[in-house]
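Milestone M4 deliverable, item 7.
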Amino acid sequence: MDRFSCMQVFVKAVELGSISAAAVELDLSSQVAGKHIRFLEQALEIKLLNRTTRQQSLTDAGRIYYEKAKHILAEMEEAEAFLAETRSTPRGKLRISAPVTFGNHALAPAITEFLKKYPEVSVELNLSNRKIDLVEEGYDIIFRSGELQDSGLLSRGLAPYKLVLCASPDYIRNSPVLETPDDLKHHECLVFTHSILRTQWSFKGPDGISSALITGRFWTNSGEALRVAAIAGQGLLLQPYELVADDLVNGRLIQVLTEYQPVVGSLHILYSRDRRMTPKLKSFIDFIVLKFGI
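Output delivered:
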């Protein structure tokens, strides 16, 4: 007779108010259930239940043991459920948040690929450039660009996203010479208000890292809106490669300052340390790290 089974009978007897009720719940005879509790008391060398033909009550020791045993059984049940989940097929809905440009041009195509691979998983994707609170807003996963603050979340680093400095052919023809980052002070820059890009642009060139303060008359938190303005000849654009890739190929935009590589931004995937690593969550994280990992 194992201690764990005896513990189950004891906890159930306390919760249901009698040994006979516990026996019915656990599909045992009343005699066998009573033997489990007597075995437990003998093993512990202490009385746990005061029993009469009409009622039962916990002893002081029984009350303490009940609280501890209830917690142990709950932990065991949770561990077994977790192991069962890890062996099962990924299924259910994932709530995901990501920055707008990355989400539209890189993540959304990847998610469609993920959904084809895991047909029992669904995804709700929210795109926003504001800082999302994963726990408060009920997300499973968030993607975050820039430096991470200590948030208590678990993180996986992804490959930095490549930035491109470009402009339309008309803007280049009709604007001052642009040979070094210092020349940006003579140019109209399209300002992305979400990050440090709103005040300065940094580059890695022949002489190392250099930063230049920028100015411009068009400010927005939308990379897509800045792209449209750049194609119209409004100014210089510094945005992720995915946003302007087709425009570069088709000649609507032209890369400039090619000897100076814009300093790339970091990108991470974040998830709660308190959230179970369910099959749907694990499969998505593994897929993203394979797709966008360093």
